[in-house]
Amino acid sequence: MIDELSDRHYEPVLGVYDRFHQASILNIDNIQHYTITWKNSTVWFDANALELQLNKGNPLLLTIETWSKNSITTHVADNVIDETSGGKYDDKIEKLGHVLSKYQQIIFIRWNPNMELPVYQYPWQFQSPEAYINAFNYFAKQIKRYAPKVKIVWGPSGYPGDTEYWVGDPNVDFVSLTLDDSYQNYTTDTIVFDGYDTMTQKLHRMRFINKPVLILGSDKIDKANFRQEWISQAATNIEKYKNTVYSTDNFEISGNKPLRVGKPLLGIYDPKERLLTDTSIKAEHLFVDLGELQSGKFEIEFKQVLARHHDVIVTMEPWRDTTGMVDNKVLTNITNGRYDKEIAKLYAIITKTEQTVYLRWLHEMEIPIHRYLWQSQKPVEYINAYRYFMLFNKKPAKNIRKVWGPAGDRGSVDWWPGNDVVDYISFAIYGLPDKNITDHNKQERFEAIFKRKNYRMRFLNKPIFITEFGVKGPEDFQTEWMNEAAQTINANKQVFGMSYFNLYDNPKAWGKIKAPDWSITNNTFDSFYKKLR
């Protein structure tokens, strides 16, 4: 299995976006893009073919792909990620570095790109983010050791969840994004491919990363149909929201997440009032839509919770008003003031108490479905609507805590609204990983779900409040699952609190499958509480 050097003409360099002006002016037209495919870990490498290109004096982008004999011939991948971290490619890296060190032009090195795509295209896909990050940084340090002037490129496609694989600042000089249609696979709709819209979405996902971005083409967008003004238009949009959506103050992470002291706050959603008298419960969860707010039902329920001397978790859902009208532009209409009357009424109710109110708004926005009107919308529109609501009350109430509530799915951070409008991050943990599963034994454990979703919040320095969690099945299974959940919470002090969903789910959301019933007994709940430290 012989290494190859090939022209990567199908991914031309089309432009560069440099928000922070860290890159010198590049002559994009002269950058040649080649692939070096390593098919084994032996030292052999055709340096002559590479030097023939380097001798032309043009800037060069080299994409390194590490394959193995098995992954090429049988599609059964060896773990090229662990092999890299383990030093198996060290000799090849050294030889490549010595070749590159002899040349003065700009040389970009991109290693094992498109790692975040959920497809079996390369052997380094479907690896854990931590493993990929370790291997990337190992490779980058090694190549810089022999060729310190090369520019290291971190190369995701720009698919939702790409920043889970972000390797950190020290070993990266540039980022690359590919103008393909990979993002369409994440949605439930058939979308007409739009190069500018695609680039804008992918650049949005890079807002946490302060690196210049190389824009690469594909079979959809090449040098013939790419428009340089797309970059300037995207830059204009980013500048428009530089103090909110793209504010560096709202994404500057310093220190560790705040840690709780003592047991976590324990809340419950329990409309049938099966567990409300349990002395361990300190908060109750209320879901309120526009109609319940308009009719006065919410105010009655809110006062009932206060009478029980509990704090209140309020999940406000801007839909289902008393007219039955469906507002398909709910996010835009929020920021245009259409719901000011209802928002003002909500604040008037929840601020007239000294009990703490955990206010959650526009939750689970990132799931690519249409269960709620605010799902599957553009992140910028969502962020503006979230901020409008949280900053609506001009005189902030001391009893309000602002809760940002994604589901915790991939790409969650694309909808992050900013440090100034979030006190707690909330995500949901339910045992069922798929709505087609009816066997309770196939549910995921709390620890696995928590680890995955909490990792996705690693950029965000806020405590975690799990405002929804639940498990279905026989009582003994539920008790075991809940006790293991308590152990996970004990080991993760960044979790401030949690609220159990003690009811069945909405049957309309489950189609032909019976909606899961998350309800638990007093014995299971007490066992869970006793396990908490």
Task: Describe the 3D structure.
The protein is an alpha/beta fold and 533 residues long. It has 15 helices and 17 strands. The chain is globular and about 80 Å long. The termini are far apart.
Topology:
Blueprint: E1 4-7, E2 13-17, E3 32-38, H1 47-54, E4 60-66, H2 69-73, H3 80-85, H4 90-100, E5 107-111, H5 129-146, E6 151-154, E7 174-178, H6 195-204, E8 213-216, H7 229-240, E9 265-269, E10 283-289, H8 290-295, H9 297-307, E11 311-317, H10 330-335, H11 340-350, E12 357-361, H12 379-390, E13 400-404, E14 424-425, E15 428-430, H13 446-455, E16 464-470, H14 475-491, E17 495-501, H15 522-531
Parallel strand pairs: 3-4, 4-5, 5-6, 6-7, 7-8, 9-10, 9-17, 10-11, 11-12, 12-13, 13-14, 15-16, 16-17
Antiparallel strand pairs: 1-3, 2-8
End-to-end span in angstroms?
56 Å
The 3D shape can be described as: globular
Number of strands: 17
The fraction of residues in strands falls at 15-25%
Strand order of the largest sheet: 14-13-12-11-10-9-17-16-15
Radius of gyration using CA atoms only: 26 Å
Spans of at least 5 consecutive residues whose pLDDT stays below 50 are 185-190
| Biggest sheet architecture | 9 strands, parallel
Q: What's the pLDDT, averaged over the residues? A: 92
Structural class: alpha/beta
Q: Count of DSSP helices?
A: 15
Share of helical residues: 25-40%
